[in-house]
Amino acid sequence: RITGPEVRGFYPTDAFEDAVFDGRYAYIAEGYRGLAVLDLEDPEFPILVSRCRDVFAFGVDLIPGERESTFAVVSDVQGINIVEIHIPSWLK
Questions:
Q1: How far apart are CA 15 and CA 57, in angstroms?
Q2: Alpha-carbon distances, residue 49 vs 8, 56, 61, 65, 83 (angstroms)
Q3: CB-hemisphere CA count at 13 Å for 76?
Q4: Sign of the Cα pseudo-torsion (5, 92, 22, 86, in order)
Q5: What pLDDT digit, counting tens, does each position of 56-83 carry?
Q6: Which among 18, 49, 53, 57 would be 20 to 30 A from 76, CA to CA?
Q7: Predicted model pTM
């Protein structure tokens, strides 16, 4: 019996602007906090695995394609940034 949505995990942020998901990872635009990458392998316990503080991130999307690295398009107050995402090799 379905009773409705239920909170199963939590990531504390006071600056959420946008998010995009790619399988195991969530890419979170957090305004003044930059771009955060969360590992959602266990959705009940999201883990921050990477962060780019060089942007004031309003929006985020991923660049599709087969590559060794993941690239995100991040909008900030000055324009559009292409950010290469680095995730520690021990998480892959």
A1: 10
A2: 19, 19, 18, 22, 15
A3: 19
A4: positive
A5: 999 999 998 777 788 999 999 889 999 9
A6: 49
A7: 0.88
